[in-house]
Design goal:
Layout lengths: L1 E5 L4 H12 L3 E6 L14 E4 L9 H4 L2 E6 L12 H20 L4 E5 L27 H21 L3 E6 L1 E3 L8 H10 L5 E2 L3 E6 H14 L5 E4 L2 E4 H12 L6 E2 L2 H18 L7 H6 L9 H7 L6 H14 L5
Parallel strand pairs: 1-2, 1-4, 2-3, 4-5, 5-6, 6-10, 7-9, 8-12
Antiparallel strand pairs: 9-11
Helix pairs in contact: 1-6, 3-4, 5-7, 5-11, 7-11
């Protein structure tokens, strides 16, 4: 039987595809017409073009599928048109999962985010019991993912759809084509483009461990439950030091207070709106960085048998991939 993976050409989606193929499963990859296909090159997958904002395009992709991994999301911390985030992440997810139920898909894994959880406000890691409200969400991306997870959970409760939710933290590793905001931190540090930093914290996890967690959620997860797929809690300074070690050179960096960086982010966004491109820093990103984004994967480890490798391995694999694919010279 076939598994459909949405967002299959993306960072996490492609890792899920690779894991499924390595497990001997047949994979159908849903991609947008404009999606780069580098992550799917040479892989024995059936490719179907569709868009979450066009429900009619999703029906052929679901036909005959045993399972669905809905990984696709609009992951941008800044956009000229925030409405696109909600159309894709909320309305698109809801439409896709309903269509999957109608198509007889046996089981669905929905990729949410740790962004939907309430942070402790200190160094204590958050877990699945840390229930947030919409008011706790910083920025349109986090709001869209929060509302999307709420909508998916409601489909489970009210319509009985067979969905397990996973909440990855900050994946790092091979295949980060775009790259993601976290991958961009690793890349720019490796390029020597980060002379300064703000004090914050992330939960770093290898993207292939996140992919394995998706499969474990499919096999062992309880319908309607959510599971954090994370790794090691680290400060940004610790992450940058590992990048330096992997690259074989030490760099002096200035620690900047958040209050000095925020005006720069406002200026960067104003420039991007006027002249195009993406801002080098975003207001939402700086505001998120004011808190330690630490998480605990104990529930997934206990219930699913989930494991993760050291953060250093994830960071080293990311640097090697960036170097191999021409991002680093």
């Amino acid at each position: 039987m076939t598994f459909l993976v949405t967002g299959a050409s993306g960072f996490v989606g492609a890792a899920v595809v690779r894991h499924l193929l390595a497990s001997g499963e047949e994979v159908r990859a849903l991609v947008r017409g404009t999606s780069p296909r580098r992550n799917l090159e040479g892989l024995p997958v059936e490719t179907v073009v569709g868009d979450l904002r066009d429900p009619a395009s999703l029906e052929p992709a679901l036909k005959g599928c045993r399972g669905l991994f809905h990984v696709a999301a609009d992951y941008r911390l800044w956009t000229r048109n925030p409405r696109e985030l909600f159309e894709t992440n909320v309305e698109g997810s809801q439409a896709l999962i309903r269509l999957a139920g109608e198509a007889g898909v046996e089981r669905i894994v929905y990729t949410s985010s740790v962004a939907t959880l309430k942070l402790s406000g200190g160094a204590a890691p958050a877990d699945e019991s840390c229930v947030a409200t919409l008011a706790d969400m910083t920025g349109d991306y986090k709001r869209s993912k929060f509302l999307a997870e709420e909508a998916v959970a409601r489909l489970v409760r009210e319509e009985g759809l067979p969905v397990v939710i996973v909440n990855p933290s900050a994946p790092i590793g091979p295949g980060d084509v775009k790259p993601t905001p976290t991958g961009r931190v690793v890349l720019e540090a490796a390029q020597g483009k980060m002379p300064a930093y703000v004090e914050t914290g992330l939960n770093v996890v290898h993207v292939d461990d996140v992919a394995q967690g998706h499969w474990l959620a499919y096999e062992k997860g309880e319908i309607g439950e959510r599971y954090i797929l994370g790794g090691a809690n680290m400060t940004l300074r610790q992450i940058l030091e590992i990048v330096d070690d992997v690259c074989g050179r030490r760099r002096a960096r200035l620690r900047l207070p958040h209050r000095l960086v925020l005006p720069l982010a406002y200026g960067a966004e104003a420039w991007a709106r006027s002249f195009g491109g993406e801002p080098f820093a975003t207001v939402d990103g700086v505001r998120m960085a004011e808190k330690l984004m630490f998480f605990d994967s104990a529930k997934a480890e206990r219930a699913l048998g989930y494991t993760h490798r050291p953060a250093r391995t994830a960071i080293a694999d990311a640097v090697v991939w960036f170097k191999t694919h021409g991002y680093l010279r």
